[in-house]
Write a structure and sequence with these properties.
alpha+beta, single chain, five-stranded mixed β-sheet
């Protein structure tokens, strides 16, 4: 045993450096079936018709599942505002539409990945395109097309009536206007930070099966085991003890595996196949393209900052407006926005502060956790303000 002050060995290190560690994409079981997902690839549309009959008739296809096969067709870390599968037949009134290109419409399970890919092309979907709101400032305007579900159904979303604002934080400290009137120098700027892709080494992958005790089991890379379990159980209408989540080696995450990608659909596929008398493990490995459109990104931000200082360079006041592009669903936008709200004035003692921060729905790919989750965007704006004050 190492004594105090000596480093502990990493038990997983030998397997990882020798290539023996198994990541979700490396997992293989006898009699393995393969799954592919039909993505919407449309930013906003009603699904008027969904015909899977030709795909189901393709030799080698074991099953095709759609929204009607999901008992509780909803999930989400902050609030359950996203359908597991979009399309007709769901018990959720908002699940008949897609809100971003990565919404999932149908699952094909087949003998091989190639057959599953072929079956996807045989699924017929009739879309009715809806207005697309991709500009976060346009989404905040009165009368902008509503993207979020009914706020009475989901009170956790503090939506402003007739807008796409999902949450609003405020900080009020001191008298900002009086402080600006007394300032010797005032710096006003607007900063834009873009979305960012996590680009972890292994894209989303995993295997779902029924274990020897009859539990729905998913082996997948993730970050919150028990949150994965809870969301799978909720979507399938099962008690949590009937759902088992196992994390093999994780091929990178950085916040990108906090939200759902393949966890629920893997569980759904294995569970529904078992109900049909087909007890086979189901595997999926997303392509890099599927990973790029199917999981969340670092939030894009607009930050408008007005800072004032006296003639000696002492900070007097900061007024900041933060607009966070949450994308099509809530994911962790409210928590990320909270960090930005706290970080937008930097590590500085400022006696007079006014901050208004909003997370906003758009038809863009959802934003979520990414190293520092909200802090880097706000810290960038704060340090730019300090640099400009120093130069003034």
């Amino acid at each position: 045993m190492p004594s105090l002050g000596q480093p502990l060995p990493r038990h997983d290190a030998p397997d990882k450096v020798t290539g023996q560690a198994l990541y979700p994409g490396d997992l293989h079981y006898p009699n393995l079936a393969h799954m592919k997902i039909l993505f919407a690839r449309r930013p906003h549309a009603l699904i008027r018709r969904l015909d899977t009959s030709h795909a189901e008739a393709l030799p080698g296809v074991l099953a095709v599942f759609t929204a009607k096969d999901v008992p509780h067709n909803e999930y989400g870390l902050i609030t359950p505002d996203q359908p597991v599968l979009c399309g007709p037949g769901s018990g959720k009134p908002y699940a008949d539409r897609v809100r971003f290109i990565g919404d999932q419409v149908a699952l094909v399970i087949a003998e091989t990945e190639r057959i599953a890919e072929k079956a996807l092309s045989l699924i017929e979907v009739e879309y009715e395109d809806l207005p697309v709101v991709s500009d976060v400032r346009a989404a905040m305007q009165p009368g902008a097309f509503l993207l979020h579900p009914d706020v009475e159904t989901y009170p956790a979303i503090r939506a402003v009536p007739h807008s796409n604002i999902m949450h609003h934080y405020q900080i009020r400290k001191g008298d900002v206007e009086a402080a600006f009137a007394a300032a010797a120098v005032i710096i006003e700027s607007e900063y834009h930070t873009p979305v960012q892709e996590h680009a972890f080494l292994q894209p989303e992958a995993g295997v779902g099966y029924m274990d020897e005790e009859g539990r729905v089991t998913v082996q997948v890379a993730g970050q919150w085991t028990h949150e994965d379990q809870e969301q799978i159980a909720h979507a399938l209408g099962l008690p949590r003890e009937q759902v088992r989540v196992i994390y093999p080696a994780i091929g990178g995450a950085f916040g990108g595996r906090e939200d759902m990608s393949v966890q629920i659909v893997l569980a759904l596929a294995a569970w529904r196949l078992h109900q049909r008398g087909i007890s086979r493990p189901v595997k999926i490995v997303w392509s890099r393209e599927e990973s790029m459109i199917g999981h969340h990104k670092r939030h894009a931000y607009i930050l408008r900052a007005k800072w004032g200082a006296d003639k000696d360079g002492k900070l007097l006041a900061a007024q900041v407006e933060i607009i966070e592009d949450g994308g099509a669903y809530a994911y962790t936008s409210t928590k990320v926005l909270g960090n930005a709200t706290l970080m937008c004035t930097g590590p500085y003692e400022i006696p007079h502060v006014q901050v208004d921060a909003c997370a906003v729905y758009t038809n863009n790919i959802p934003g979520g956790a990414f190293r520092g989750f909200g802090g880097p965007q706000a810290a960038f704006a704060a340090e730019q303000q300090m640099n400009k004050l120093a130069e003034a």
